[in-house]
Structures
1.
Amino acid sequence: MRFGCFVPQGWRLDLAGIEQRNQWPTILATAKAIEAAGYESLWVYDHFHTVPVPTQEATFEAWSLMSALAAATDTVRLGQMCTCVSYRPPAYLAKVAATIDVISGGRLEMGIGAGWFEKEYTAYGYDFPRAATRIAMLDEAVQIMRRLWTEDEVDFAGHHFVLDGAISQPKPVQDPHIPIWVAGGGEQLTLQVAARYADYTNFGSDIDDFIHKSKVLANHCERLNTDYRAIVRSSNFLVVCEDSEADVAKRLTWINDQTAAFASEAIAVSRTRGFEDMAGTPDQLIERLQDWNAAGLDYGILYFAESAYDHEGLDRFGAEVMPALRSS
């Protein structure tokens, strides 16, 4: 198995209490800790204000962070889970991504999805079309990005996007193009886009859901005559990794209390429960992730709620869990 790790960027209230002048240094220090711990990739979210409730706490913009982290790191790969197709025109996004791929020396991952957060769309003045329209936009956007990364001049006449002689230079460093992650588990449309274009996918709210959607993806690939085995399947995990069960319980209480400072107790309890499936000691996490690996998971993207304040969890996972699963 392969592993990536999210940096704190504020979206999940994970920079709360840190002075603004110290927030970027905190993000950068965590990025360097992720790199030093041996994770293959670091990740950001593409959102504009905090969850589970909007607050005045900072949420750093995804692609600005991509550019800064590209220049400030050396070996770790850089991804977004995931870019919302509605927030930036795809030709512009292709240009930004290619530029960052050059800055990073060929370390960019292109995560993209159809978008889902209606309240955020309306808050920032974006139209929120029905799901089928957003996924059709996703399909066209992926086509545009791939063509701009590999062709000298692009004409494109879609239902949602039109290009007339578009040129994108510099081209990405990566050959044939930046890896494309199509994120989302919509069975009829999103997974069909993934089957057609994706190098990587990201789905699965639990292991049974992951197994089911993997079968759906395989069926789409068979129908479209694409190679299911060539698509790397990933999922995201909210992780607590502590030395003892007592320390696990303390960390879960800390997550609850951190959230309750901004939201209702019911919301705080709900958020904390989201960590329980992947909360444990290193041995417990190895056992749970071996089950996911047996189900076909290739790549785990991890989120540690405390990483802005304490790197011990991500370091412990890197030192004790990853080596046991890398040979899987």
Note: The chain has one domain: 2-243+281-326.
2.
Amino acid sequence: METTFISNDKIKQFIDRIEGDLYVPHKKEDYFQWQKYPSDYSFDGYRTILPPKFLFYSPQEVLVNKKVTKRTVMGIKGCDLRAILFLRKVFKEGDSIDPFFREDNFIISADCSEAGENCFCTLLGDKPYAEQGFDLNISTLDDGFIFEVGSERGKTLIEKNKEFFIDTSSEQLSLRKKMRDKVTKEIKGKKIKLDKKNLSSDAIMDEIKKCVSCSACTNICPSCFCFLLGEKKKLEKVRFWDSCQLPGYARVAGGANPRKELDKRFVHRLQCKFEYSPVRFGSVGCFGCGRCTSSCYGGIDFQKTLSKLG
């Protein structure tokens, strides 16, 4: 893909020219969070504490007369971009005007410059950087940033601001490769190869016993998409996030519940990610961000759980 370079002293001028709502990662203490620009920003490190799903797929939204907002999200990491592309497959087919997954949302992804404590994207066969689905992608170097063009819209934005950019040198591309290789090696562990026949509670009962059904894992997941419908004033239909890990998730009228037991709900989550999603959407539903492990009140290590199913 086509690349170009912008120096540290010009990047803010470029960002200031981006139209519409702009969200950037902001470093706070030892983690990253999304903030609306203007704000301090950092494209270093690894994924944000909350996934960008919160910007694309609201926890609660009115489904009629949706507010259409032009937005740019800058600094999305590879795992989160793959999750957004996955959610597009889930929602876009039936709603071509969805304000969160419309084609005119502008995405600028960014390479990871370090691995988070619970990251495991490479163990699922992915990379700590985006390879597709972005308009532009940022790779951080000491003296500036390599911008990789991923769409015609991305190319147009670069051309409109060409006074800020110069040609990328072979040395800079070599430095980018070294950085990518370094971060890839930082993500430790054995590659995960699931055997669908092992998707049973017996193999992971020790992990299941730790679960408290708090639903933190699904709420923090960048690709979970379950929802329920309700009504607000004036009979407005509202979509709320739901979680397959809550005891009442599968309950139907009359009180019957086919997944009342914790182990059934726990296994269902694994089946949804690694068995049902590949059939329905052509992709697994997990992208190795590790947020579920970081947020689990029971201390369940999702990577360890998956390794038991190989």
Note: The longest strand covers residues 21-28.
3.
Amino acid sequence: MRVKTGVLIVVLGLSVLLAPLVAEAQLERQIPRIGALCPTVCSGPLYETFLRGLQELGYVDGQNIVMEWRAAEGRYGRLAELASELVQRGVDLIVAPSQPAIRAAKQATTTIPIVMVDVGDPVRAGFVSSLARPGGNITGVTVLAIELTQKLLELLTAAVPGMTRVAVLGTPAALQYHGSALENAVRSLRLELQPLPVQVPAEFGRAFDTARSEGAGAVLVLPLHTFAAHQRQLAELALESRLPAIFWQKSCAELGGLIAYGASLSYMGQRVAALTGKILRGARPDDLPVERAMQFELVINLQTAQALGLTIPPLVLFQADEVIR
């Protein structure tokens, strides 16, 4: 009888000691885990406004949500491994900026909701069935690349009056993808198109040399995420080649590019937070239409214009959201 009583006391004692640990483990399982699959680094305006947007919705990292950050640091081959890690960690949702990250997340799971960001054409890429009815486990915010590229060409011709020949830098696949839209745009703008196909960053220098030697008046750098990690190099090569260049991210102009025009990353972060909040509250990704970016930024670097001996027309400067002097 005494033995049984002793065992009972030990069991009760262990129960009292373990109760807080069990409760903590149960609470941790109840707290949503959000994975972020970053192609380069998990920092910058997109991620800052994403976290701020979540806080405005009542979700604070370390309190009632847990963020799982995974950064490929420009090594896109690691994205599949990192996506699998997030799935193994039991995340409730994955935020995937850029087409390579979205594809890696999609291959890693067909059930965990994925909120994609900044992809050129999610329907053509096979991520969703349509913008209005995504289907599957993916929704998000998109910038339609074809429309963006046409706008980039229009701004470039307005900023560089008298230009007749424009070089377009991109991978062979991207040049083919944008081919018909580029041809239509240069025809309406009365320009001559000079494709500059590159496979790897080591070919950037040769491409700019070709553009200059063959008489290009300016360069359009296609909006490609594989170029994002090399913005400074591209901006410096354009300046060394004495060629006005237009890019698609604000940071490109801040690093010395002449012009940048693209979707506001702060706006994109806010919309991703809103979609994430809806999913955390029970919405299904296939019931949330893919949103199109509605806020864009035009940034002009007048220091670069001066170095190139270029005068930007007042009308173009008037349209700029930011002028770097």
Note: The mean pLDDT is 89.
4.
Amino acid sequence: MRQKSVLGSIAALLASLSLAVVAVVAQPTGAGAQTGEFRKGPDPTEASVRADRGPFATTTASVSSLVAGFGGGTIHYPTTTTQGTFGAIAFAPGFTASSSSYAWIGPRIASQGFVVFLINTDSRFDFPASRATQLQNALNYLVNQSVAASRIDRNRLAVGGHSMGGGGSLIAADNNASLQAAVPLQPWNTGTNFSGVNVPTMIVGAENDTVASVASHSEPFYNSIPAASEKAYVELNGASHGVGTTANVVQAKSMIVWLKRYVDNDTRYEQFICPPPPAPSAEIQEYRNTCPG
């Protein structure tokens, strides 16, 4: 009886080892299998993050202005269906502007492996708080009703915007801690306290901005965000408020790097954040940041 008991124990041990081996083999082998990363595309280079287009072909879909909760817009997304799901960002325009003013953002960011929703607001005169609500409504539409919904990882969402849209994106980040990133461009808002933001946030200011001066807007916004939240501030050398509507290469690179690092959790992009780029330089007047923890 003792011999059978020993043999039975050995058999049970071998069986459990076999199951353990199967479990290990069954683990995903992608880049994010052990790191929590969602890597998309080849290893980045300085040239690749400054390029007009990334490695993914993209397409677009229009959303009617009759949709509830915001003013419609245009969705840009990768055409591939073999790369799994993508992170997504909703981007709000500035005061009196429309999504068409930011056409450069859609294909440039989407081609790096994101779904990008350039939205219109219910009224071109909506203030930042309203734009914040509309950004959240747009994200809800994006993941639940849009033609790109099946391509989106609803747990990896971000917001951005220009001017009042940028102020709206900061309010949205303050209101929704589940967001993975916020990227306000030359943000404008009447209040400057964003101490409740715990979403990784990169603010892009413009040195010669006379509409949302960095001294009254971008810098106080940045300073108010806790360092534990992860944050960065890029001030574009010699730029004015309208730079948000242009394909400024530093601005575009900053958006790509931030979204890759925090929406995709892709640590390959940390090289562009830490150590920080030199400033002042021909392109950047000032750069402040916390390094990813």
Note: DSSP finds seven helices and nine strands in the chain.
